[in-house]
Amino acid sequence: MDGATDRHVRRGFVALILASFVLGRRFAALGQPRWVAFSVTTGVVFLAVLVAAASGLTSATANVLGLSVAIILAWSWLAAVSAHLMTDAG
User: N or C, which end of the chain has less CB nearby within 10 Å?
Assistant: First the structure.
């Protein structure tokens, strides 16, 4: 990846992690503990996997598997939260 693309990908990952914590806090204020747990868990797992992959201390196979799981979790969270918020709104 070139520098601009790499920078945009990192910003997108950071935005996703921050969004999971922000929505976790919103769900806490609304008294929805399952959504809090799902949101915070997604942010923590995604952050931990990215830090582990960036540190270079894990093998390439572990990085690929970890990132795959984290991306599937993040997209699942994003879809579930979107559906949940759309249902609440309408």
Answer: C
Task: Tell the burial category of 34 from Cβ atoms under 10 Å away from its Cβ (0-12, 13-18, 19+).
Answer: exposed
The answer to whether 24 and 39 are in contact (CB under 8 A) is: yes
pLDDT digits (tens, 9 = 90+) for 15-54: 999 999 999 999 999 999 999 999 999 999 999 999 998 8
Q: What is the per-residue pLDDT across 60-82, written as a single tens digit (0 to 9) for each?
A: 888 899 999 999 999 999 999 99
**Domain boundaries, position 51:** 3-89
pTM assigned to the model: 0.87
Q: Are 49 and 62 in contact (CB under 8 A)?
A: no
CA distances from 82 to 2, 8, 11, 50, 73 (A): 31, 23, 21, 24, 14
